[in-house]
Amino acid sequence: MLGASVKPVSARVFRGELLGMWSSTRMVVLVAMSASLYAAILIPFKVVQLIPGITELRPANAVPVVCSFLFGPAAGWGAAIGNAIGDTFGGLGPGDLFGFAGNLMYGIAPYRVWRALGGGRPVPADARDWLRFFASLFAGAACCALIVGWGLNALGFVPFTVLGNVVLLNNMITAGVLAPLLLHHLYPRVERAHLLFGDVLATRPPGRRRARIGLTLLFAGVVGGLVAGNLAATGAWQPAWVAPSASPTHAPEVGFGVAPFVALAVAGVLLL
Amino acid sequence: MTSSLYVDRPGFLHAAHPLGKLLAFAAFFVAVFSLEQPLAIAPYVALLALAAVFAHAGPNLQRLRALLVVIPLGAIVVWTFFYRGRGAGAPFQPSSAGFLFGVGMGLKLLSFLLLNLILLSTTRVEELTAAFTRLGMPYRVGFALTLAFRLVPLFAGSASTVLQAQRLRSLGAEVRGVRARLAQTVPVILAVFMGALRRADQMAIALDMRGFALPGRRTFLLERPVSARDAVVVLVALGAPLSSWAIRAAGYGVFPR
Fold it and tell me: Which of A141, B43, B124, B233 has a Cα at 20 to 30 A from A59?
């Protein structure tokens, strides 16, 4: 049987589950596997550009979400590396650092939010499960859209109004349709193979209080950030803590104005 | 399908040290990033296009030709409507100032694509990983990156095999409609995923058997010595940000605020 002899490695011995997972050889291989699956589906669709040079039609966006529920933190690193591999076919640049961070969050937020909302098998059976599932999916998709949209507008490449919204929709639609279908078939198989991240890595879910704080910070950060980003990028909102600039891209307004929301969202994910 | 853009032909840049090439990549990026006006950015794009030909990146230019056209065009369209600087009209109204800014942005993105092509056409993924490791990236992260690059064509090949087997069983009937196509995609991903998982499990065992988990400093098979050509690469690269700084200091390069 696959992975039957796996002994969980304690992430607490090291530096938390996100960094501690690198001490497990199986998790390192699962990172590479998630990354290559993501990239293998991303690359053929590079020619179907939605915002040329920045983002394209991404049916592969279901992969990080599915891997998140199966492989936990390995899916986050896998999504980040897979996105970087895909970007080598569309022009690497400093914007890819934000792509890396955004996809890392896209891969780790779903399983953490799901766990904080009660956990269990991520194969929705009733209305409550579907609600939890879509909340988990939205958290990851919105966190990725916020970081990528914020970073690339801060560098002056693409307006947040365009990129943030396109990434959010792209992530939500593809993952919303494909992820439940794939998980329905894959989760039982991977569970039987004892290769779920809980079987490979001994982790401890956050306490109820910490989970509540994390969820509040995360959702306040992503919702607030998406609204603030759209308003600041169009000039409809001038953040009180940023001096008005004459920038044609509103880069300082978006860069400094949305940064606190990004920090809230990232802190929320890390607390979960 | 291949996941690497590396062109295996001996050349000046192929033999240069990956760290020098990374420094050159960063220097050219800083130079182009600091400029806005198309006429100021165009010479850098021309220089990079020449360097791409010189680096034998022709097959990759051909391979990514659609992107070389679509990327600048997209930037022009977006900024024609979203530009908010001097000379812009009402929000979301196209303006000639926005068009000009978009041309500059399109050239910037084109230069990043060319930089990327030159770097990856002349540098193996393993060399890049070794360079990043020298810069402080943990070995295990570099290993995952290299392994992922190597696995991409393998998984793409598996997907193609599964797809062909399915087509054969349905006697060549072409699937029509979004729902039917989606329904066809799911079994393909399932088969590729489970195959990948089996491979991952065996790979983890093989790695542990070979001492992957053991502590200690790692060495790399591909180690390039530093040579005089690296000094040339670094000097040419440093000229890029210096020249862009000179252009800005002379009052050109950016649009008036």
Answer: B124
